[in-house]
Design goal:
The chain is about 30% helix and about 35% strand. It is α+β, with helices and mostly antiparallel strands. The longest helix has 20 residues.
């Protein structure tokens, strides 16, 4: 389920099918996104696009839109805070960022990461990342993400650095 909201408050909330394909280095990329049409086509498209168990959830409206909107509001507040501090917010593919974090910090394909951006300068982003694998092991650390301009206005991850453990931690930070 996807919830998208523009700065003026208009938006969309809809179930989606994300078609993916394997890219370079076992990284999966989005190939296409499909969503049901509006109106009288909605039910028909849901039945064509989604398997029965997902259809049930869609028709039951089994999605926490409030939590999604709260996450959007949190991200928008972070953007406004960065702007007020004179920092430039860059557009970066979050999947690419998560893949880079997993590769650098944990190197386990079952790992998921979340992060909070603390600042930006030139071609660097400073953030705190928390990653956890399916077995429950994880890491929580500050990170410097070195970025470079990709296609259009989207930036991509070039390299990630994090402080070493132990006595080197303070020195690296």
């Amino acid at each position: 389920w996807a919830v998208c909201e523009s700065a003026d408050g208009s938006g969309v909330s809809t179930p989606v099918v994300v078609h993916i394909e394997r890219g370079e280095g076992d990284v999966w990329r989005v190939r296409e996104i499909e969503s049901p049409r509006d109106g009288t086509f909605y039910d028909q498209d849901v039945r064509v696009l989604f398997p029965p168990d997902v259809q049930e959830r869609i028709f039951a409206h089994d999605f926490d839109a409030g939590a999604a909107l709260a996450r959007i509001a949190e991200r928008r507040a972070q953007m406004e805070q960065a702007e007020s501090l004179g920092q430039i917010r860059v557009s970066i593919n979050e999947q690419d960022l998560e893949s880079a974090l997993v590769s650098q910090l944990f190197d386990d394909p079952t790992t998921l990461c979340e992060w909070q951006i603390w600042g930006e300068a030139d071609q660097e982003m400073y953030l705190w990342a928390v990653c956890e694998s399916a077995d429950g092991s994880g890491v929580s650390t500050p990170v410097v993400v070195h970025i470079e301009r990709g296609e259009g206005d989207v930036w991509r991850v070039r390299e990630i650095e994090s402080p070493r453990d132990g006595t080197f931690y303070d020195q690296d930070v």
